[in-house]
Amino acid sequence: MSAVVAQTLHVFGLRSHVANNIFYFDEQIIIFPSGNHCVKYNVDQKWQKFIPGSEKSQGMLALSISPNRRYLAISETVQEKPAITIYELSSIPCRKRKVLNNFDFQVQKFISMAFSPDSKYLLAQTSPPESNLVYWLWEKQKVMAIVRIDTQNNPVYQVSFSPQDNTQVCVTGNGMFKLLRFAEGTLKQTSFQRGEPQNYLAHTWVADDKIVVGTDTGKLFLFESGDQRWETSIMVKEPTNGSKSLDVIQESESLIEFPPVSSPLPSYEQMVAASSHSQMSMPQVFAIAAYSKGFACSAGPGRVLLFEKMEEKDFYRESREIRIPVDPQSNDPSQSDKQDVLCLCFSPSEETLVASTSKNQLYSITMSLTEISKGEPAHFEYLMYPLHSAPITGLATCIRKPLIATCSLDRSIRLWNYETNTLELFKEYQEEAYSISLHPSGHFIVVGFADKLRLMNLLIDDIRSFKEYSVRGCGECSFSNGGHLFAAVNGNVIHVYTTTSLENISSLKGHTGKIRSIVWNADDSKLISGGTDGAVYEWNLSTGKRETECVLKSCSYNCVTVSPDAKIIFAVGSDHTLKEIADSLILREISAFDVTYTAIVISHSGRMMFVGTSVGTIRAMKYPLPLQKEFNEYQAHAGPITKMLLTFDDQFLLTAAEDGCLFTWKVFDKDGRGIKREREVGFAEEVLVTKTDMEEKAQVMLELKTRVEELKMENEYQLRLKDMNYSEKIKELTDKFIQEMESLKTKNQVLRTEKEKQDVYHHEHIEDLLDKQSRELQDMECCNNQKLLLEYEKYQELQLKSQRMQEEYEKQLRDNDETKSQALEELTEFYEAKLQEKTTLLEEAQEDVRQQLREFEETKKQIEEDEDREIQDIKTKYEKKLRDEKESNLRLKGETGIMRKKFSSLQKEIEERTNDIETLKGEQMKLQGVIKSLEKDIQGLKREIQERDETIQDKEKRIYDLKKKNQELGKFKFVLDYKIKELKKQIEPRENEIRVMKEQIQENDPILKWPQRVEIHLYNFRKQVRKVLLWGTLPQMEAELENFHKQNTQLELNITELWQKLRATDQEMRRERQKERDLEALVKRFKTDLHNCVAYIQEPRLLKEKVRGLFEKYVQRADMVEIAGLNTDLQQEYTRQREHLERNLATLKKKVVKEGELHRTDYVRIMQENVSLIKEINELRRELKFTRSQVYDLEAALKLTKKVRPQEVSETEPSRDMLSTAPTARLNEQEETGRIIEMQRLEIQRLRDQIQEQEQVTGFHTLAGVRLPSLSNSEVDLEVKTN
């Protein structure tokens, strides 16, 4: 054997799917399965001791502990055969007491076991299709009885003994509740189930003949001698505060007290498979455990109910609810309370309740806490620490700290301390993690997730990412030994990054298949890789090229490692060998002896080597490797080992496997070869803390200090107040007590005087009574003396009388004796004579008998001779007949055998056909359900498409209207701007004219008589013209401004609504993209798993298991339906909807084009009208200028304009040369003025009519979003100037 030894130190993990997977050995020690071991864990001192599984064991199935806590029974599968191993727990270390592995009956595996109350008998239940219940006297390996429990292949979950009776047994399963009794070498059923069968998941004994049972529909039953006595339903309700609570509806007669006996748990997969038809809203009772006050039972995911017995009434009620707490480190905290409680166990003193869940977690709660938390649900706490609930995919360790980093398919990263055996950090993520590596300093990790490769900081209480790389599904990553580089695998390419600049310095390409393992040499100058393509490459990082290569297409490598001197590469793969490779050549191949090596590691000293196998064992061997089978093999895990590592000091071996467990081993070399590596410097205690965290902590500490000071001052003040109040109260109480004492003293004095009086009275009364008593006593003595004398005389007389009677009786006795003796003599003589006569008669009879015997012998001899002759004849006759019968019997036996074979084959065919019919019926029901659900989905999609079509049409119509309005508003804005400019240009010349004419009036003031009236008329005329021009358009413009503002507000609301819909559409698009990424990740994982399955193409059994695992992992029940026809229907529906939408889109485009043409014609028409209006305005201007020139001519004729006009007036007025052509004839001034006024009035009326016509034009709107200035201020300014 090898001199390299490994000793198990600690394990982090639990196998929750082992039946009855947790129980107490004593008050401090619990026992639970982990890997391929049973672990004894001391809760107080935190140490672990191990009970290893049997050699070549394929995993534990069920556990059972004896009631006296002395024996432990483990059900295993060893080399495809079932076995039950019984250990003696009291010995140190635990030793095997018996192994039950030779069976006279068919059995595949044992799924449930139970010890009898006296621990002498063992009950074991086999799995379907046999479903045998075996009753063992296990010390002698003797089967006392065996009976088949079920013939319908229904799963059986639990068997148990009565706590007081070795002969009474209970069995529960799907549609099965049976009570049996062992008598006369057989197990006989004593009760038959009445009513509708239930799926009974768990049970426990209440008393000698009373059992409580839980079902998958949340019901609890009490059976007494097989008859139902009580029933309770646990219903899940939604309370008002949003959290689920459990309400227990009780409909019972009575319930008695439950003893503290734990219930063994069935297989969780069997329960889920058998209860899949039950309602999802009903809590499933997977576990029941009883204690002195009542019992506890699981009541749905994450909940346990406690039932207690009421004092007055004889039944139980729900007293407490215990929940699994929310995990703050999880990415989805609500998932923590969605795990089913599979097993419950009370400590011997009933101080602690321990629970195991379907996610491999252990929880505990102190029962005293449940008493404190009345009215509110109590919460479990982790018994040790959170454990992995899925296969571990990555394992890493560092140099400067005693840390182990693991990642798992449960999407979590955990850091363990192998010195203190504790969990340092734990965090869950959205994506699965495939690989992990720790920096040698222990401050950083690199993790390969399904979507990205992340480089993270290990803070004091968190794991934070600070760099991400777009490397999807990184299966391997590793820091270099110096920590300045790290490598990550992306499919068949290795990317090398530097940890200083975080850049990709090299990409190593050459593998044609997936890379499964990479390893650095000691000085980080080379990198060795191995993959599924059968290639092992040695890369030079300085050049980025391969130095050596070894390709073997027939082998898919699982792991590679390199010797400390980097000269020899060791590789293990699918060909059941361990290879030594040097200089591109395979030096040696060492057989693995019918197992597949999945991991390999060599010590830093180069003296020890460890390999992990596909059956979960590890092999320790020395180096150089021996040619023979020289290694130590240790039972470790219940699944293939995925990763193995040695710590830097070669003291500890770390192993992780698909069972989700992490083992730490102490390793050493017995021969002492090599130098023991001791640490010169202790482990680092530094941790990373961010500056913001430190500042927050400092701020919190400062706030807490100030708060403490405030509380101190407040408490001192309160204490002073209390002291003052208490001193006042004490003073008041002392005064009060003094007064009461004085009053009591006076009362006491009064009572003393009364007492003395009463004493005197009682003394006299007693003396009188004593005298009276003495006199009565003397009288009674005299009377009694006289009575005694009379009685004595009577006694003397009776004594004389008795003497005389005695003498008479003695005389009578003597006479009777004499008569008796005389009669006896006479009878003796008579019977002696009679006896002599009888003897003579007897002798004669004997002589006759002897004579008859001689005659009988003679006749007998003659008869025998006759009979012999007859027997000989009959014998010959019947021998001949027997030969004939034997020949016919042999012929009939052959025919019978043929008929039996035909009958058995027909019966098998009938069973197969019935099974096929049932499966087809189930598939038909599933398909009908899927068809109905898909029809509903199609109807819903059609409605949704129709609604979306309507909304699209409405929105497009609305968008078209808004665009049209926007274009019209732009045109109207242009027209209004032009109008405003023209009006301003018209107002400015008039103001200048008014100013000039005022100056002229001031200059010609002496002669202002008749011309003054002309000036007044002109002033009134100008004022009326200005008011008509301003006020005619002002209300219309104000109304248009209001319309602008209203439409602007409506457009803003529409824009807001459209933005919200756009955001909703973006969110939906992001969700669809996320779904697409999830599907891509799922497809990638499926491809990876499928590729892994291909490695087992030469092993049909493993390939079958892997394919079945793939089926269970990826195929949902709805996927089992044939989707081909459905896909074609969906495709046809999709094409039809697409054609419909395309037709609608084409019609909408045509409408848009048509509406655009109409809009263009309207636009041309409106522009022509605008041009005509502008022309009319220009004509009005010219007419106004002409009238202005006439006014100036009149003024010149009246000699009012002798002086030269100002320059600004000359700029706005037409040239005087143009007016020189006017007629020189002069009319009467009054007639001329009246004619001018009449002409202006007609012109104003015409302008008003045109304005009204313009207002009646349809679609004339103002521009939204622009508030024009009011014209009222301009009017006021004009009036002030004119005044």
From TrEMBL:
Record InterPro entries: Beta-prop_EML-like_2nd, CFA-57, WD40/YVTN_repeat-like_dom_sf, WD40_repeat_dom_sf, WD40_rpt
Gene3D superfamilies: 1.10.287.1490, YVTN repeat-like/Quinoprotein amine dehydrogenase
The organism's taxonomic lineage, starting at the top: Eukaryota, Metazoa, Chordata, Craniata, Vertebrata
Organism per entry: Homo sapiens (Human)
Cytoplasm as UniProt keyword: no
Residue stretches in coiled coil: 795-1000, 1034-1082, 1131-1197
WD repeat coordinates: 385-426, 508-549, 634-667
Taxonomic superkingdom: Eukaryota
Entry protein name: Cilia and flagella associated protein 57
PROSITE patterns in the cross-refs: WD_REPEATS_2, WD_REPEATS_REGION
Ranges where the EML-like second beta-propeller domain occurs: 393-667
Keywords, ordered alphabetically: Coiled coil, Repeat, WD repeat
Signal sequence range: none
